[in-house]
Every structure is written in C-alpha cells, then in structure tokens.
Automatic annotation (TrEMBL):
A Pfam family: SBP_bac_1
InterPro entries: Bact_solute-bd_prot1, SBP
Residues annotated as transmembrane: none
Superkingdom in the source lineage: Bacteria
Lineage, uppermost ranks: Bacteria, Bacillati, Actinomycetota, Actinomycetes, Micrococcales
UniProt name for this protein: Raffinose/stachyose/melibiose transport system substrate-binding protein
C-alpha cells in the first residue's frame, strides 16, 4: 500500500461537543477505545473489559456507537487531537491519511509476534510504506450472497450462479410476487457491494487499483461504466424492493426482509450472519437460510473466486495519546488480542478471526457450514478488495456514495457517474 493523496479532516462544533460528551483520547487520563454496535463487536468489547479486569493499571474504557455515527465522529476526533487511544478503522485511504499526518504510531516491532499468527493477506491491509500502522482486531468480513431457499423453491427457480441466470431469476421471482433482492439503499454503502463485485467480475482487480492509485480518468474505465449499466439494468428489472432507498442497514432491515420471505436474496457482509443468529434464530438455524458466492459474468476478466468486503476491522494507536495510554494500547494488542477466549467467543457468534490454522476449531462449531464457507473464501481468494468507501481517498468517500445513489435511482447515467468521480481524483 502506498501513502498518497492526503486531505485535511474537517471538524464541526456540533460533533466536537458530542465527542466531548463521550470522552476523547489525547490529553485524557486513561486509555480508551471506541467500538461499534452489534455483530462481533460485543465480543471485542468484552475482550477489552477482560483486559481491564486483568490489568487494572492499564484499564481501557470503552464507548460504543452505531456504524454510521462512528464513521462521522472518529474522523472529527482524530483530526482535532481527541481520538481514543485505540482507533478502530477499515484501513484504506483513511489509514494513509492518518499515517501522513502522524495521527497514529508505528506498530511494526511491537506487534511482530501477533502478526505471525494472522492471515498474511489480511495483515497487509495495515501496512503503509513497509511499516505496520494497524492490526486486524476482529473477524474477516467477505461480502456474500444470502439466500432464502424456501422462496426459490416456491417460485420454482434455481439460485443463480451467473449473470444470465440472475436476470432469469429476477423475472421469475417478480412473477411470484417476491422481491428478488433486499437492499439497504438508505445507508448507501450497501450499494458499493454491487458496484465493486460487478467491476471486479467484469474487469478484474486492476480496474479499481488504478482508482486507488489516483490515476487520471480511472473511473472512466469501461468495466466501471459497464458495472453501472448493469446496476441500472437490475433496477429497471425490479430486482430490488421499490422502497430500497429508505431501507437502512444499521437495524438489519435488509436481512430481516430475507428472513421474512419478502426478499429472496441479499448481498451483504459476513457480519450479517452473526446478527441473524441473534435477531432471527429460527430462520438462521433452518435449511432455508443459504449462502453462496457472487455470480460469474461470462467473458469477464475477473476471477470468480475474488471477493470484496472488509478483510477485518483494524486497531491503530493514537499518536495524540499520552505515553502511558499508548503503552496500554500496545500491550493490549501484543499480549491479549486474539487470545483463546476471544477466538472461541468469535466463533461461537458466527464470526471468523483472521488467524491461520482454524480448521479444527471451525469444524467443532455449530456454524461449521457458514464459517467454513467464509474461511475458505478468504484463504483461497486471489484478490480481497477492500470496500470502495474505505479504499478511496477520504475526500472521495461522500461524493462516491452520493453519485452511486444517483446511479441506483436512475438520476444520472453511468457516463455521468464516471465523469463526476474522475473530477475527484487527486492531482
């Protein structure tokens, strides 16, 4: 990963006031960490609490946030010097920015033994210019296609394995009175899963690599144009719930539609599996709850084994924290992260740590089928594309989400999308 394309993190008075109420990092009296709600995050929070119980002199306090709220607040906190000691992130363009502005510390030497236990392709996402500034801290998160098999059986159609079969299934499912796909368009970022898989299947990983590298006109690559055309082809074919623009992901609304039988499929991250175990345990335990890979596209240059998503969430240590706070955070990472208790807890909740040699543990779980499927997908993928909103320069993130939403809503053409995004490429 190469460091480049840096922007300044802005701050607003309202967000700063909100951060003060929650407790910031730099200048604080004790180490702290911010985590997200739901999925595997309670396991992360419990692990931090266990560390604090065992190490009262280095106790780490924890605050939790909904996904979208966290993304807003952490940017402001880091840029204002009020970051928590342990900064949870997705690497990509944001980590590049953190490193260029010296917002985070070098973890290369202090986490060497930890990294020896982890999957190399996941670890690599925390590297900038040969040094480690972030280490994975929770589960691998490939995006998979979830299926309600009962809906397919009732409609008399097979689960699609390629694009032509997908279009046929969309038509048949609509005739059966069910939405082919649920989509949490109100959260915007689930739309990225479609854009990134389609682009990769059509043009291969090199297409988006050029975007991340800041190459001029990279967004105008024919594969991206075609991906946006296919998005609009799906919308016009009524592939998505007509109300998708108001469905949000934070409350798992899209997955709930799958469980209720209102939708036949949903393209979502592996984190949805653990949430469904909690929210709809009967459906999650049934034979109707299935999962598979994103369909192939005939003639496409991308390997059908490629996956997209988040290799994991990552911890970085704030450079604005005091020496004592930094040491507490580093000791937690190097001495406690991915201990046996937390690894077992992740697996028990349907999540896979990015560790080598988990086959036997996975085989002993009640969720062996899904965990084995996701674990093999990660280990065998020729390319694991980080989610676009995390991979791009932070200055592009909101513009990307806004323009992609306009594509889904049919308010701009694929060519206009490319033109608008090319204008954001750093010079």
């Amino acid at each position: 990963m190469q460091a480049s394309r840096i922007t300044t993190i802005g701050a607003t008075t309202a967000l700063l006031l909100g951060l003060t109420a929650c407790g910031g990092g730099g200048g604080g009296s004790e180490p702290n960490a911010w985590v997200l709600n739901g999925g595997v995050w309670p396991v992360v929070e419990e692990d931090l609490e266990a560390w604090s119980d065992e190490n009262p002199d280095q106790a780490i306090t924890v605050d939790s946030f909904a996904n979208d709220v966290y993304k807003e607040r952490i940017r402001t906190a880091v840029g204002s010097g009020e970051a928590p000691t342990l900064i949870a992130g997705w690497t990509g363009g944001t980590l590049l920015e953190y490193v260029e502005h010296d917002y985070v510390v070098d973890l290369t030497d202090s986490t060497e033994q930890l990294r020896e236990r982890l999957i190399d392709s996941v670890v690599a996402n925390g590297e900038v210019d040969g040094s480690i500034y972030a280490v994975p801290m929770n589960n691998v998160q490939p995006v998979v296609l979830y299926v309600n098999q009962a809906v397919f059986d009732e409609a008399g159609v097979e689960v699609p394995t390629d694009w032509d079969e997908l279009l046929t299934a969309v038509e048949s499912l609509n005739e059966a009175g069910v939405h082919p796909f649920a989509l949490a368009g109100g959260s915007r970022w689930p739309m990225l899963m479609w854009a990134s898989y389609l682009t990769d299947r059509i043009g291969g990983p090199e297409v988006f690599d050029a975007v991340v590298a800041g190459e001029p006109d990279a967004w105008s690559h024919p594969a991206i144009i075609e991906a946006m055309e296919k998005v609009q082809e799906l919308v016009e074919a009524d592939a998505f719930d007509p109300g998708f623009a108001s469905v949000v992901a934070d409350q798992n609304e899209d997955a709930q539609m799958l469980a209720d039988g209102r939708a036949a499929m949903v393209l979502q991250g592996s984190w949805v599996y653990s949430r469904m175990l909690e929210d709809v345990p009967d459906f999650a335990a049934s034979d109707d709850f299935r999962f598979t890979t994103f369909p192939e596209i005939s003639g496409g240059e991308g390997d059908p084994a490629n996956i997209v998503g988040n290799p994991a969430n990552f911890w970085s240590v704030s450079a604005d924290a005091s020496d004592e706070e930094q040491q507490a955070g580093i000791d937690y990472l190097s001495e406690h992260l991915f201990n046996d208790t937390s690894v077992d807890a992740m697996l028990e909740t349907g999540n896979i740590p990015p560790l080598e040699g988990l086959d036997e543990k996975i085989a002993e779980t009640d969720d062996e089928e899904f965990l084995g499927f996701a674990y093999d997908a990660v280990r065998e993928a020729p390319n694991f594309q980080l989610s676009w909103d995390q991979a791009v320069d932070p200055s592009q993130e909101q513009v990307l989400l806004e323009n992609l939403e306009l594509v889904f809503l049919g308010q701009i053409t694929p060519e206009e999308f490319a033109e608008n995004m090319d204008a954001t490429q750093p010079e």
